[in-house]
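Same chain as my last thread, 351 residues:
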Amino acid sequence: MDRERVIAVARGEAAGDLLLAGGRIVNVFTGEVEEGDVVIAEGVIAGIGRAYRAAEAVGLDGAYLLPGFINGHTHVESSFLSLSQYARAVLPHGTTSVVTDLHELANVGGLQAIRDFLDEAAALPLDVFLMAPSCVPATHLETAGATLDAQDVALALAWPETLGLGELMNFPGAIAGHAGCLDKVAAARDRGKVVDGHAPGLGGVDLNAYLAAGPRSDHESTALEEAREKLRRGMYVMIREGTSEKNLEELLPLVTDRTYGRCLLVVDDRSCRDLLQDGDIDAVVRKAVRLGLDPVRAVQLATVNPATYFGLRDRGAIAPGHLANLIVADDLGDLRPRRVYHRGRLVAADG
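reply #2:
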């Protein structure tokens, strides 16, 4: 990226590559919707205002402009699609970044299968991040095609696409302080990376012990009070609405003006049929709004909140210096992406 050029565009002294003019910009930092133009250069947002110019200008005519969605917890394999077809399925729904724990793939092909997957992702207009699988195989009772020990996990954690350690499904081992489990957590913590949790039904001293082991998020809550206790103990709560597990209606009352910053909307597992017929994170946002959540708040739970949790400081908001991963939509109350941009390039239009 030519950073000096981006700065010159931001100052208004040079033309950008693309100008999205006359939009209603969803500001996820303040919860406001503001009118203005957005100029893009080198794949990033250079500036917001009214005095910019660019090689290409697109009039939004009052449509909403919001950040591309970040799917903060999913297993891409559950879609039953190849990665390229998965990208074709989710991009029209506004998903521009995906955080995936590929433990199902690793159960079959091991570390090399994950590496091949990420290499394929690099050529797609979809940003794919890895949470290194922590439990391969999930139990000693499985007959798996591979095993990932602490050394393997450490290798995966060193990859640039890896944000942290995937859901720590061996919660009994974590609570008991088993070395094989804690060594994997330590490998992530030593690198300053997050550790996702998997703590169905945990509470009280068991939850305390699990948190003391290192996990900082959970997507397995099915009851409101269970999720509330996890929130009180410092966990980020990922509210799941997938193909088989649908927890949004039960857990949505957890999201208030005081707590929303610690909550994310995720899909976990979503089949190709549901992706086609219903959508991806956009479907969860729409349902949350139908259930009474403020539309801008719902967008925050699918953009800036996952970006904050995972330390993705270059996305999740419309602001200078952020990647131009953007959605154009006509209605926040029934949010259906009309145009989707990935790093300033149009990648989907009208579904």
